[in-house]
């Protein structure tokens, strides 16, 4: 990876922003994709100020729309002249008790979380093949995709699916030298997690702290993770140290799920 170019979807905040910061620190040129252009532009500005003016560019795309994903990936790879790593990080996390899940809930969550990963894999593999070299695809699953959690039927179902997609495509794309892996965060201090905790607390007639504590119970290391904890694992998967790793899910949850 002489050029070291990475694309990160959902890079405007939380884990995605931390991943962009980690990969820029590791010497990657970074293409940042998000639904809200102003958010990814703000992150790109920070990275360009810290690591050089040509470190990052921002593009707007809705990952549930295949054409938008392909167009954004193409623009970024054209800008930097290469592509080596793709992190399919974008996602949504509705909190809904099973008897309240609607058709709209399922369609919305699956189109973003699952379809978005599939389009990202397709776009990444297309560009890796165009440049005639190997590449790394890294997908966001979740601790909720390794072990079922109450009130997360819609969300958890997508994250279990991503683990399967990761394994399937790792086998399909290995002949091209493309590895496909996933990372499964646990309870992370992000705006998304705060929203989940709020909904869980509200559904139980409790406050936000109560909601967060329901997820924080049983973490062996005794603390909720920071986005940087997850970004560190992605940094490994994006590096040459992981060249012989494919089809795997690395759980980054401080010790909640043990296999």
TrEMBL record:
EC main group:
oxidoreductase
Catalytic residues of the enzyme? 155
Catalytic activity, per the record? (S)-acetoin + NAD(+) = diacetyl + NADH + H(+)
Q: Which GO terms describe its biological process?
A: acetoin catabolic process; bile acid metabolic process; fatty acid biosynthetic process
What InterPro entries does the database record attribute to this sequence?
Answer: 23BDH, NAD(P)-bd_dom_sf, Sc_DH/Rdtase_CS, SDR_fam
Task: List keywords of the entry alphabetically.
Answer: NAD, Oxidoreductase
PROSITE patterns linked to this entry: ADH_SHORT
- Keyword Acyltransferase assigned to the entry: answer is no
**Mind listing the GO molecular function terms for this protein?**
diacetyl reductase ((S)-acetoin forming) (NAD+) activity; quinone binding
Enzyme Commission number(s) of this protein: 1.1.1.304
State where NAD(+) binds. Answer: 13-15, 62-63, 89, 155, 159, 185-190
Matching Pfam families = adh_short (PF00106)
Role played: Catalyzes the irreversible reduction of 2,3-butanediol to (S)-acetoin in the presence of NADH.
The similarity comment for this entry is:
Belongs to the short-chain dehydrogenases/reductases (SDR) family.
Against NCBIfam families, the record matches this protein to: 23BDH, PRK07231.1, PRK08643.1
Its protein name is: diacetyl reductase [(S)-acetoin forming]
Which species is this UniProt entry from?
Answer: Oenococcus oeni
What are the top taxonomic ranks of the organism?
Bacteria, Bacillati, Bacillota, Bacilli, Lactobacillales
């Amino acid at each position: 990876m002489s050029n070291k170019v990475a694309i990160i979807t959902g890079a405007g905040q939380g884990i995605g922003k931390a991943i962009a910061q980690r990969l820029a620190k590791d010497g990657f040129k970074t293409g940042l994709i998000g639904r809200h252009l102003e958010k990814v532009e703000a992150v790109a500005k920070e990275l360009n100020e810290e690591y050089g003016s040509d470190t990052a560019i921002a593009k707007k795309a809705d990952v549930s729309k295949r054409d938008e994903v392909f167009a954004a990936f193409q623009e970024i790879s054209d800008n930097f002249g290469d592509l080596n790593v793709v992190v399919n990080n974008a996602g949504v996390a509705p909190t809904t008790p099973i008897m309240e899940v609607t058709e709209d809930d399922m369609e919305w969550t699956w189109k973003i979380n699952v379809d978005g990963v599939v389009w990202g894999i397709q776009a990444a593999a297309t560009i890796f093949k165009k440049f005639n070299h190997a590449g790394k695809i890294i997908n966001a699953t979740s601790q909720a995709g390794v072990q079922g959690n109450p009130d997360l039927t819609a969300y958890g179902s997508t994250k279990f699916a991503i683990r399967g997609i990761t394994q399937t495509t790792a086998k399909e794309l290995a002949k091209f030298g493309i590895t496909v892996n996933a990372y499964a965060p646990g309870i992370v201090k992000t705006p998304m997690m705060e929203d989940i905790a709020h909904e869980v607390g509200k559904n139980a007639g409790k406050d936000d702290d109560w909601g967060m504590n329901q997820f924080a119970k049983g973490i062996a290391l005794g603390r909720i993770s920071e986005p940087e904890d997850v970004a560190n694992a992605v940094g490994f998967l994006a590096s040459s140290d992981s060249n012989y790793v494919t089809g795997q899910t690395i759980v980054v949850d401080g010790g909640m799920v043990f296999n």
